[in-house]
Amino acid sequence: MCCAVFALAAQNQPEISSHESTVTFSSRVNMVSVPVVVRDAQGRAVGTLQQDDFQLSDKSKVQSIKKFSLEKSDGAVGLETSAVSDIGAATKAKLALPERYIAYVFDDIHLQRGDLLQTRIAVNKHLDEALEARSRAAIITMSGRMMADFTDDREKLRKAVNSVLPWSSGPDSQQDCTVSYYFADYLANQALYFSGFLFTDDQLAAMAANGTDSTLSAVVNEEAACLGMKPADAIAQIRGMVHQALERGDRETTFSLGAVKDVIRRLSAMPGSRTIVVVSPGFLVNADHRTAGYDVLDKAIRANVTVNTIDMRGLYAMPGWTGDASQRGPATANSGLFTQAAIAEASQNDDVLAELADGTGGTFFHNDNGLKAGLDLLAARPEYIYVLGFSPQDLKYDGTYHELKVKLKNSRGLTLQVRKGYWAPKHAVDAAEEASDEIREAVFSREEIQDIPVQVETEFFKSSEEKAELTVN
User: CA triplet 256, 335, 113: central angle to 5 degrees?
Assistant: First the structure.
């Protein structure tokens, strides 16, 4: 049939012909995507706004919005009605494709055993009631273990949840003499006391003794007491403890961000609505990891993946050393300083959860003991998410933070949930990687694509008067 058609078409045509037309190629240069959820006074997502309704600023400079789209969460994926009109209802149900994929990422690196029991109870109750017929869920840990791949089998999911255990890459901070990642980052990366050998052991001992820096003095005195040594004699060991804490903390933060990024990559190949629920007490993302954190946000935004986060510790309690008998309390009179540091650390740990949620149009549920209700809320994607895209003017590859502000020209009592900022890259984006990301984004985007640049090579052969072959590459 096809050859006959070719033969007829070939009778009055030259053996080789070509047609050239102008092809427009577009390239995104340092495009920053900003998801925005707009809600009315009743908390309902609004989906009736246009590009001209928004104003976007980068470091207080108004930017031109180059890309504008409205993502809807009701994009069901399944067989057309006409294709299954002659089969039974039961068969139709089996053929219906999943329309929602939810990946629950458990932070087994930072979750404490005391929080894990209530986490399991809340998640299991949530999955029993909230998992819909056309939804698929997966249980994944930040340490890299796939506990249960995407499935609607609640028994498999419950078994996976109950198998999650705390994971650590270092010594037991509750039993051994260790410096926390928070203090190590301050002492080595910010104050530079233990950065290389800018300060000798004798200098640090003198500074700790005279109280030049209260944090330095508190950590040195605390760890020296734990080691059973005089502060001046313990500096060398404390220096090693600080570097070990940095290595361990950097490794765990890299694992945590990498796990979320891997799940985003996996979800990008799924149809329908795609959501991640990060179950975590939060973790520290210092200056060395900010670019990696931005990259996670960027990948999620491009793949239309919403990241929701929940702090499973529940209602916030004032941190301290005496509330938990399993914690190693201070051996010196520095409980006030350590309590203040614990509050600051908890706030910084929450920052990454808030940024992941705000930056992708998701929700951060915290400081609330209604954990099951929180999970129910997070499993539902906002009905409408606007995505504003712009190319920063004169962007410098210096790794600096850019604060973003989005407002409505006429707010009309509406509130906005928006990405708060981004970190400039420290180097230009690799062209091959960017092209791969753009192809992946285009394939799995729900936006209507009017044109796709394609390079086509054709070869036309007449093997006889009646037969012709056309090869298209």
Answer: 35
Total residues found in the chain within this entry: 473
Give me the torsion for CA of 88, 90, 91, 93, rounded to 10°: 120
What pTM value is reported for the model?
0.71
| Nearest alpha carbon to residue 410 among 54, 123, 103 | 54
Question: What values do phi and psi take at 150, rounded to 5?
Answer: -55, 125
Closest CA to 177 of 240, 110, 113: 240
Q: For residue 81, with 0-12 CB atoms within 10 Å meaning exposed, 13-18 middle and 19 or more buried, which class applies?
A: exposed
Single out the residue of 365, 371, 315, 318 nearest to residue 118, CA to CA.
371
Does residue 301 contact residue 359 with C-beta atoms inside 8 Å?
yes
- Read off the amino acid at residue 89: A
Quote the CA–CA distance of 96 and 107 in Å, as a whole number.
33
Cα–Cα distance for residue pair 143/228, rounded to 1 Å: 34
- Separation CA 127–CA 152 (nearest Å): 10
Please name the amino acid found at residue 327. Q
- Residue carrying the six token digits 């908390």: 43
Q: What is the pLDDT of residues 361-408, one digit of tens each?
A: 888 999 899 999 999 988 877 788 898 999 998 888 877 888 999 999
| Ranges of the chain whose pLDDT falls below 70 | 1-29, 73-97, 170-175, 316-333, 427-456, 460-461, 463, 473
Report the distance separating Cα 128 and Cα 405, nearest Å: 39
